Amino acid sequence: MGLRCGMRTTKCQLLVTSLCVMLLGLSVATLSTVTHYGLHFTLLSNISLESNSYRVIHHTAFYFGICLSMTLILAALLSSAATVRESQLLTAMGFFCFALAFCGLIPAACWRYTHSTEVEDSMMDVYDLVYEEVRRNASSFRRHELTAIHEAFLCCGKHSPFGDTANVETKTCPSSQVRDVGQDCLQEIRDFLKKHMDFVSTLLGIAIGFTVYGMILTSFLWFSIHFSSNLDRKGKYILRER
User: Fold this and answer.
1) Tens-digit pLDDT profile for residues 5-38
2) The three-state (H, E, C) secondary structure of the chain, written as one string
3) What is the pLDDT of residues 160-205, one digit of tens each?
4) Distance CA 87, CA 17 (A)
């Protein structure tokens, strides 16, 4: 009786967790898509040189996010099906998907904190490259790219140790930003990226918590189904006629 009651409680908790994980997987997919196709990130990725690591990071983050979201959604679907059908096989597959997602989330979280400045530096390197090329030779192609960056980040120029930047910024800043010539675009890029990475960190933390909880619930449900089926078999008796 206690085992059946515990199984019902676990099933209810697992269904709620599966729904949350499903929403979490959709959120990760949305964030990955926004990161990959968003104006700010796409603009810098298209401008960056092959030697710059930002383009590699940009594409890797997208594919990792999509794979992670698919794994989370699959774990949620398998866990829901296992809860309804009380299937040990589906429960084991759900546990495996949760464990797979957990194994992907931990390295991602570690990379986020150990390489926190790498993405920031690579993005600012792209801006520095374009800005200095425009300042040196006033290339029309580079000037167009610099103007696009200023319009996207709503900033105007940077503090340069070489001086003589007013002419560049006047030609490439949006009309609404010309009066703020000298506003540091590098700081705007840094602030924008910090907000984005803070949201990523929050999502990673929530995902890790739900995957651990999902593994606990699926393992408990598997053992509950296993022992319940054994009790059902032991409780069957056959009466033989004399």
Assistant:
1) 667 788 888 899 999 999 999 999 999 999 999 9
2) CHHHHHHHHHHHHHHHHHHHHHHHHHHHHHHHHHHHHCHHHHHHHHHCCCCCCHHHHHHHHHHHHHHHHHHHHHHHHHHHHHHHHCCHHHHHHHHHHHHHHHHHHHHHHHHHHHCHHHHHHHHHHHHHHHHHHHHHHCCHHHHHHHHHHHHHHCCCCCCCCCCCCHHHHHHHCCCCCHHHCCCCHHHHHHHHHHHHHHHHHHHHHHHHHHHHHHHHHHHHHHHHHHHHHHHHHHCCCCCCCC
3) 655 555 667 677 787 665 555 546 888 899 999 999 999 999 999 9
4) 18
Dump pLDDT digits (tens) for 90-123.
999 999 999 999 999 999 999 988 887 888 899 9
